[in-house]
Amino acid sequence: MINLRRPQEALAGCIWLPRFIDKCRLHFSGILPPDYEIAFCNPRGIDGIFLAHFGITSADMQTAIRTASTDAEVVRWFCTQPGVRPETIQSWNDLAPNIGKPGQPGERGLEWARRHFLAACTDPRVISGFTAIAWDEGFLDAAPPST
Protein backbone atom coordinates (compact mmCIF):
# COMPACT_ATOMS: atom_id res chain seq x y z
CA MET A 1 0.00 0.00 0.00
CA ILE A 2 1.24 3.45 -0.85
CA ASN A 3 1.38 6.23 1.69
CA LEU A 4 -0.84 9.15 0.70
CA ARG A 5 -2.27 11.74 3.00
CA ARG A 6 -6.01 11.45 3.41
CA PRO A 7 -8.27 13.57 1.21
CA GLN A 8 -9.47 15.71 4.14
CA GLU A 9 -5.97 16.73 5.22
CA ALA A 10 -5.18 20.35 4.41
CA LEU A 11 -2.33 22.69 3.60
CA ALA A 12 -2.98 26.42 3.37
CA GLY A 13 -6.45 25.54 4.64
CA CYS A 14 -7.09 23.59 1.41
CA ILE A 15 -8.14 19.95 1.55
CA TRP A 16 -6.83 17.59 -1.16
CA LEU A 17 -3.71 19.73 -1.72
CA PRO A 18 -1.44 17.53 0.48
CA ARG A 19 -2.71 14.35 -1.18
CA PHE A 20 -2.22 15.84 -4.63
CA ILE A 21 1.37 16.74 -3.71
CA ASP A 22 1.95 13.16 -2.54
CA LYS A 23 0.48 11.74 -5.74
CA CYS A 24 2.67 13.99 -7.89
CA ARG A 25 5.81 12.99 -6.02
CA LEU A 26 4.99 9.30 -6.41
CA HIS A 27 4.21 9.87 -10.10
CA PHE A 28 7.55 11.64 -10.62
CA SER A 29 9.33 8.73 -8.91
CA GLY A 30 7.54 6.22 -11.13
CA ILE A 31 5.92 4.45 -8.17
CA LEU A 32 2.35 5.72 -8.34
CA PRO A 33 0.36 2.48 -8.75
CA PRO A 34 -1.33 1.93 -12.12
CA ASP A 35 -4.87 2.31 -10.75
CA TYR A 36 -3.88 5.71 -9.31
CA GLU A 37 -2.15 6.69 -12.57
CA ILE A 38 -5.44 6.20 -14.44
CA ALA A 39 -7.08 8.89 -12.32
CA PHE A 40 -4.00 11.11 -11.98
CA CYS A 41 -4.94 14.61 -13.21
CA ASN A 42 -7.92 13.18 -15.08
CA PRO A 43 -10.38 16.05 -15.71
CA ARG A 44 -13.28 13.86 -14.54
CA GLY A 45 -11.57 12.84 -11.31
CA ILE A 46 -10.91 14.73 -8.11
CA ASP A 47 -7.46 15.88 -9.29
CA GLY A 48 -8.89 17.43 -12.44
CA ILE A 49 -11.81 19.00 -10.63
CA PHE A 50 -9.37 20.42 -8.06
CA LEU A 51 -7.17 21.95 -10.76
CA ALA A 52 -10.12 23.37 -12.70
CA HIS A 53 -11.65 24.84 -9.54
CA PHE A 54 -8.53 26.90 -8.95
CA GLY A 55 -7.80 27.60 -12.64
CA ILE A 56 -4.42 25.87 -12.51
CA THR A 57 -3.12 23.67 -15.31
CA SER A 58 -1.85 20.21 -14.55
CA ALA A 59 1.51 21.11 -16.12
CA ASP A 60 1.93 24.23 -13.97
CA MET A 61 0.96 22.43 -10.76
CA GLN A 62 3.27 19.52 -11.50
CA THR A 63 6.15 21.87 -12.31
CA ALA A 64 5.64 23.73 -9.03
CA ILE A 65 5.63 20.47 -7.08
CA ARG A 66 8.59 19.00 -8.97
CA THR A 67 10.76 22.08 -8.36
CA ALA A 68 9.78 22.56 -4.72
CA SER A 69 11.82 20.87 -2.02
CA THR A 70 9.13 21.19 0.65
CA ASP A 71 5.40 21.38 1.06
CA ALA A 72 5.86 24.95 2.30
CA GLU A 73 7.33 25.94 -1.08
CA VAL A 74 4.37 24.37 -2.90
CA VAL A 75 1.98 26.22 -0.58
CA ARG A 76 3.72 29.53 -1.27
CA TRP A 77 3.40 28.96 -5.01
CA PHE A 78 -0.20 27.72 -4.75
CA CYS A 79 -1.28 30.76 -2.73
CA THR A 80 0.08 33.13 -5.41
CA GLN A 81 -2.15 31.69 -8.13
CA PRO A 82 -4.93 34.07 -9.28
CA GLY A 83 -7.70 31.52 -8.65
CA VAL A 84 -6.55 30.77 -5.11
CA ARG A 85 -8.26 33.06 -2.63
CA PRO A 86 -9.81 32.37 0.77
CA GLU A 87 -13.28 32.17 -0.79
CA THR A 88 -12.22 29.72 -3.53
CA ILE A 89 -10.45 27.56 -0.95
CA GLN A 90 -13.62 27.55 1.16
CA SER A 91 -15.84 26.76 -1.81
CA TRP A 92 -13.45 23.92 -2.74
CA ASN A 93 -13.51 22.56 0.81
CA ASP A 94 -17.33 22.58 0.67
CA LEU A 95 -17.43 20.92 -2.76
CA ALA A 96 -14.67 18.33 -2.53
CA PRO A 97 -16.26 15.87 -0.05
CA ASN A 98 -19.35 15.82 -2.28
CA ILE A 99 -17.57 15.02 -5.54
CA GLY A 100 -19.11 11.92 -7.08
CA LYS A 101 -22.47 12.23 -5.36
CA PRO A 102 -25.55 12.36 -7.61
CA GLY A 103 -25.80 15.73 -9.29
CA GLN A 104 -22.28 16.75 -8.26
CA PRO A 105 -19.09 17.01 -10.33
CA GLY A 106 -17.39 13.65 -10.71
CA GLU A 107 -20.60 11.63 -10.61
CA ARG A 108 -19.70 9.77 -13.82
CA GLY A 109 -16.14 9.24 -12.58
CA LEU A 110 -17.35 7.57 -9.40
CA GLU A 111 -19.75 5.39 -11.40
CA TRP A 112 -16.79 4.30 -13.56
CA ALA A 113 -14.63 3.62 -10.48
CA ARG A 114 -17.41 1.51 -8.94
CA ARG A 115 -17.43 -0.72 -12.03
CA HIS A 116 -13.66 -1.00 -12.44
CA PHE A 117 -12.11 -0.72 -8.98
CA LEU A 118 -14.83 -0.91 -6.36
CA ALA A 119 -16.90 -3.82 -7.67
CA ALA A 120 -16.46 -5.65 -4.35
CA CYS A 121 -17.69 -2.66 -2.35
CA THR A 122 -21.20 -3.07 -0.98
CA ASP A 123 -20.77 -0.53 1.82
CA PRO A 124 -23.70 1.91 1.63
CA ARG A 125 -21.52 4.68 3.10
CA VAL A 126 -19.48 4.86 -0.11
CA ILE A 127 -21.34 7.71 -1.77
CA SER A 128 -18.58 10.08 -2.88
CA GLY A 129 -15.01 10.11 -4.11
CA PHE A 130 -13.75 10.75 -0.58
CA THR A 131 -15.69 7.84 0.94
CA ALA A 132 -14.63 5.59 -1.95
CA ILE A 133 -10.98 6.44 -1.25
CA ALA A 134 -11.50 5.82 2.47
CA TRP A 135 -13.05 2.41 1.76
CA ASP A 136 -10.41 1.47 -0.81
CA GLU A 137 -7.49 2.52 1.39
CA GLY A 138 -8.94 0.93 4.52
CA PHE A 139 -9.60 3.96 6.70
CA LEU A 140 -13.36 4.41 6.35
CA ASP A 141 -13.85 3.36 9.97
CA ALA A 142 -10.63 4.90 11.30
CA ALA A 143 -10.45 8.10 13.27
CA PRO A 144 -9.05 11.04 11.31
CA PRO A 145 -5.33 11.59 11.75
CA SER A 146 -4.37 14.17 14.34
CA THR A 147 -2.77 17.31 13.01
Would you summarize the structure shown here?
This protein is an all-alpha fold and 147 residues long. The chain is built from 8 helices and 2 strands, in the order ββαααααααα. The chain has a domain of 90 residues.
Can you walk me through this structure?
This protein is mainly alpha-helical. Helices cover 51% and strands 3% of the residues. The protein is built from 8 helices and 2 strands. β1 and β2 (14-15) form a beta hairpin. The longest helix is centred in the first third of the chain and has 13 residues, at 17-29. It is globular, with a radius of gyration of 15 Å. The two termini are 22 Å apart.
List the helices and strands and how they pair.
Layout: E1 10-11, E2 14-15, H1 17-29, H2 34-39, H3 46-54, H4 58-67, H5 71-79, H6 86-95, H7 107-116, H8 129-136
Antiparallel strand pairs: 1-2
Number of strands: 2
Low-confidence parts: none
Radius of gyration: 15 Å
Number of helices: 8
Identify the strand order in the major beta sheet: 1-2
What is the overall silhouette? Answer: globular
Oligomer: single chain
**Largest β sheet strand count, sense and barrel closure:** 2 strands, antiparallel
Q: Portion of residues in helices?
A: 40-55%
The SS-based structural class is: mainly alpha
Keywords:
147 residues, mainly alpha, two-stranded antiparallel sheet
